[in-house]
Amino acid sequence: MRINKYLASAGVASRRKAEEFISAGKVKVNGKIVYELSTDIKDSDRVSVNGKVVKPASNFVYYKLHKPKGYVSTVSDDKGRKTIMSLMRGVHARIFPVGRLDYDTEGLIILTNDGELSNILTKPNSEIKKKYIVNIEGAIAPDEIKTLSNGVDIGDYTTKPCSVQLLDTTEGNSRLAVTIKEGKNRQIRRMFESIGKTITFLKRTDIGQIHLGGLSRGEYAELNSNEMKFINSLKK
User: Does the structure show a pLDDT above 90 at 205?
Assistant: First the structure.
């Protein structure tokens, strides 16, 4: 098994993040640092990350969390900010977040020890729908909604067509539902910035058929049976 897949199977991180650990010299095989991403791991090998021995998980676990604002979606943070892992009290498996939500964004995020699932959900061509509720300052015109829906230039990328629906306008502010099939860094915020709009509130509510539901900020739950059917369908 290739080393990045081994680390993903051990619940260390997604394959791509595991490759970063390898390149940074944080991974040892039988006591020696390895840098080659093509390194093959045998059953008899001893693999460690930052000095801690890791092995492929025997049982996968899947959680959804309502991430509040003011938390980073990483296992640790070199700036000392609060991470979402501090909210997962009572979970003893080595889990990690699938993808990220910005520090100032709240809502649905998945945590698991299934590195293969993370790879499926975060790969650029997955086209899994992600729905957000967006509040902006001021009104938004029909032609601006059409512009966002058709795709906009956000600096280093032109977004793909997406669904943008105006939900209501009250007291000079607008509330919209936006569904995208990609996930570039700060994409929703940059989309609205491209048409001169300022986001005052941003929450992700859905990833494919996984829903935030009634979780309050900071609460988590295991995926239900319908959500697990969706997860298993992705892994076929």
Answer: yes
Write the pLDDT tens digit of every residue in 69-92.
999 999 888 899 999 999 999 998
Q: Facing residues of 108 across strands? A: 66
- pTM value is 0.83
The structure tokens 């501090």 sit at 86
CA-nearest of 107, 78, 83 to 95 is 83
- CA dist 107 and 203 (Å) reads 5
Q: Please give the Cα distance from 123 to 130 (Å, whole number).
A: 14
Angstrom distance (rounded) from CA 206 to CA 188: 14
Q: Whole-angstrom Cα distance, residue 172 to residue 177? A: 17
Phi, psi at 81, each rounded to 5°: -80, 160
Q: Which residues, in sequence order, are CB contacts of 24 under 8 Å at separation 6+?
A: none
Catalytic site residue from 102, 143, 153, 206 = 102
Q: Which residue has the tokens 């509330």?
A: 175
- Please choose, from the candidates 170, 56, 169, 161, the residue with its C-alpha nearest in 3D space to the C-alpha of residue 113: 56
Q: Is 102 a catalytic residue?
A: yes
